[in-house]
Design a protein that fits this description.
245 residues, 5-stranded mixed sheet, D-Maltodextrin-Binding Protein, domain 2, Alpha-Beta Plaits, 14 strands, alpha+beta
Length: 245
């Protein structure tokens, strides 16, 4: 059975569609090799307890500059703020136009398609989808790779890695005690980030990604240790990792 591809204006919109059942699957960016974590995704994973990560896709990013006319007579350039920061400095400095941050690169392409004097920094696919003509490509810095997560309301227990979000007691050694549980079971962490807890100034939640899946005995033992050393733990699921050129 086929699936319909539906654009969302924002990452939060993708989570809302999946969480409400309007969409069965969603695709959201998790982390970029140059810019780090995508905070909107992390915050949605923390706040929405009904959505899980089922697969992670690592995709090399190729940013293009595109417009309706395919020339450099544009006055405005639309793009997502992450994409803007991933563009080479010499390219940004050469743009004699106002750079306008928007919700996503696909939304940027849509806006450029409606603006005679607009252009977009976006993916080649987005440019083609909205009928834009490519002015220049390869705008990104070297080694620009983004991890995308496929999300749904179903948790998966097998795969290469597992993701969880946790809060720890606000006292000396709080995070150390959490990490010791992974060390004790010989589990390698592949990603750790902190994000502010809304409503609690200077307190944070932590995102951890680690090797192994929920069905492995050492992972089960590790997770069994966490309630004693944390205030909350939210399992986001296990997933395979697919690397695309």
């Amino acid at each position: 059975m086929g699936s319909n591809l539906v654009e969302s204006k924002s990452i939060s919109g993708v989570f809302e569609a999946v969480g409400s059942g309007v969409g069965r699957l969603g695709v959201v960016p998790i982390q970029n090799s140059l810019e780090g974590p995508v905070n909107e995704t992390l915050d949605n994973l923390f706040s929405r307890r009904d959505v899980y990560v089922n697969r992670v896709i690592e995709l090399g990013i190729n940013l293009v500059l595109a417009s309706v006319n395919g020339d450099r007579g544009f006055k405005r350039v639309y793009s997502h703020h992450h994409a803007i920061r991933e563009v080479r400095r010499d390219v940004l400095n050469s743009l004699e136009a106002e750079v306008i941050p928007v919700e996503s690169t696909s939304h940027a392409a849509m806006l450029a398609a409606k603006d005679e004097y607009g252009a977009a920094i976006c993916s080649r696919v987005a440019a083609q989808l909205y009928g834009l003509k490519i002015i220049a490509d390869g705008l990104q810095e070297d080694n620009n790779i983004t991890k995308f997560g496929v999300i749904s309301k179903e948790i998966t227990r097998s795969g290469d890695r597992t993701m969880l979000l946790a809060t720890v007691p606000h006292r000396p050694g709080g995070l150390l005690k959490l990490l010791e549980a992974f060390y004790a079971e010989g589990i390698n962490l592949t990603m750790i980030y902190s994000r502010p807890l809304r409503g609690l100034a200077w307190q944070y939640y932590f995102l951890l990604e680690f090797e192994g899946c929920l069905d492995e005995p050492n992972v089960e033992r590790c997770l069994g240790r966490l309630p004693a050393v944390s205030e909350s733990v939210r399992i986001c699921g296990s997933y395979p990792i697919q690397r695309l050129a």
